[in-house]
Design a protein that fits this description.
Layout (H helix, E strand, L loop, with lengths): L11 E5 L3 H13 L2 E5 L13 E3 L6 H10 L2 E4 L6 H8 L8 H7 L2 H10 L7 E4 L2 H5 L8 E5 L9 E4 L2 H10 L5 E5 L3 E11 L5 E3 L3 E6 L2 E7 L6 H17 L4 E10 L4 E7 L8 H5 L4 H9 L13 E7 L11 H5 L4 E5 L10 E8 L3 H15 L5
Parallel strand pairs: 1-2, 1-4, 2-3
Antiparallel strand pairs: 5-8, 6-7, 6-8, 9-10, 9-11, 9-13, 11-12, 12-15, 13-14, 15-17, 16-17
The protein binds adenosine-5'-triphosphate and magnesium ion.
């Protein structure tokens, strides 16, 4: 088998992690005719429930990794905090994409920002905070800022807004005195993201940018294609994401999140070595979804460019919508045209927990926005 030979449908693809991203990957891979093997410690994980096989064990479990490498012809990951050691061990036996080195960059905000700089992509002014002296010697122009743990943050967790050096010191201690990054708080005009796929042959395809609205640090709404974004800005974001993928010799699906500042400049925020919440619009709005690209890239199948056939608005469905454990009125929402409900099969609804998403597609973005507003109202989601 040459390095670039495709792994034909019928083979088994493995995924580390059994959350909703893994579940949507399994859906796409199974539709292509692959079997799926999910490794996740949770007995009731969204992806583990629907895969042909679920290895229920820790990510560093010797036997589990052995079974994954032996049972799958290629392996990918659905979250960035999988131990680098697990990817390294798997890579000795089976093709792993993205590779451990690229995933390691996404696990650490300081490394991530250094990588942006290396790729010529601007990011927020920042400093690494890992001791009290770093706080005392901090440049004044980084305040007001946002202190973020360098590792293991998601959905705005592990972050504190700080306005002064004293607040910074208190916030750093409150976050456990671990290695952090302080970023200057920027005046954002909006946020966008680019999702791309890069093949083992170096070919890259990308989706038009998504426009994202966050609430309390969690993605609430995505509109696609991004409204109010000039073509030249979209091109700059696309070129920046491609430069990062190429520099990292990345294989698989990569998302880069950007801030658009009031002066029209672009700042990379962070990246994810996998399909992204903002890219969920591609399931119902494009002929090839981000999850199908993930399967194709790891299986070394061709990556022809996507066609956006239906502009879309995506609403995240958080656990807050389940009041007194009662599910929202799905029938009321599904009565609206162009609504696509995606529930992840999670049984426990907790505030802030991503339970599913609703995509609304239409022939124009304006039409999709109108239906999405109505759907949001019926669900009790705040207007935008
Ligand atoms: P996720 O992994 O879910 O994307 P996260 O926990 O890694 O989230 P960030 O992406 O760093 O968090 O930040 C979450 C949101 O907070 C951003 O999308 C943005 O709205 C806001 N934010 C973060 N950093 C800054 C900054 N330097 N200036 C202004 N706003 C910011
Ligand atoms: Mg983010």
């Amino acid at each position: 088998m040459t390095a670039h030979a495709a792994i034909a449908p019928g083979a088994t693809l493995g995924v580390l992690g059994g959350g909703q991203l893994g579940r949507m990957f399994v859906h796409a891979a199974q539709r292509l005719g692959y079997r799926c093997l999910v490794l996740d410690p949770d007995a009731d994980s969204p992806a583990g429930r629907i895969a042909e096989r679920h290895l229920r064990c820790d990510y560093l479990d010797e036997q589990g990794l052995e079974a994954l490498a032996g049972g799958a012809q290629a392996v990918t990951t659905e979250f960035e905090n999988v131990p680098a050691e697990a990817l390294r061990r798997l890579a000795e036996r089976v093709p792993v994409s993205p590779g451990g080195a690229a995933v390691a960059v996404c696990q650490d905000r300081a490394l991530e920002k250094a990588t942006f700089a290396r790729c010529g992509v601007p990011c927020a002014p920042h400093a690494v905070i890992d001791n009290e002296a770093a706080i005392r010697s901090l440049s004044e122009n980084l305040l007001p800022g946002i202190l973020k743990t360098a590792q293991l943050g998601y959905d705005g967790k592990g972050q504190r807004r700080v306005d002064s050096r004293d607040e910074l010191a208190a916030a750093w201690r409150a976050l456990g005195s671990v290695r952090c990054v302080l970023e200057r708080r920027l005046d954002l005009a909006c946020e966008i993201s680019v999702v791309l796929a890069r093949g083992v042959d170096g070919g890259v395809i990308s989706f038009a940018p998504f426009r994202n609205l966050h609430r309390d640090g969690i993605l609430a709404l995505t509109q696609w294609p991004a409204p109010g974004i000039e073509a030249s800005l979209a091109e700059r974001a696309d070129a920046a994401a491609r430069a990062i993928a190429t520099t990292l010799e990345y294989v698989g699906v990569l998302c880069v999140e950007f801030f658009v500042l009031r002066d029209g400049s672009l700042c990379a925020n962070e990246m994810a070595p996998r399909p992204h919440n903002s890219g969920h619009c591609t399931i119902d709005g494009a002929d090839i979804s981000q999850f199908e690209y993930q399967a194709r890239a790891m299986a070394r199948l061709p990556l022809p460019g996507p066609r956006l056939h239906s502009p879309a608005v995506m609403l995240n469905l958080l656990g807050d919508l389940w009041r007194d454990d009662a599910a929202p009125d799905w029938a009321g929402v599904l009565a609206l045209p162009g609504t696509h409900l995606h529930l992840y099969g999670k049984t426990q609804a907790r505030p802030g927990r991503k339970m599913g998403h609703l995509s609304v597609t239409a022939s124009t973005l304006t039409a999709a926005q109108a239906v999405a507003r109505e759907a949001a109202q019926r669900l009790g989601i705040a207007a935008w």
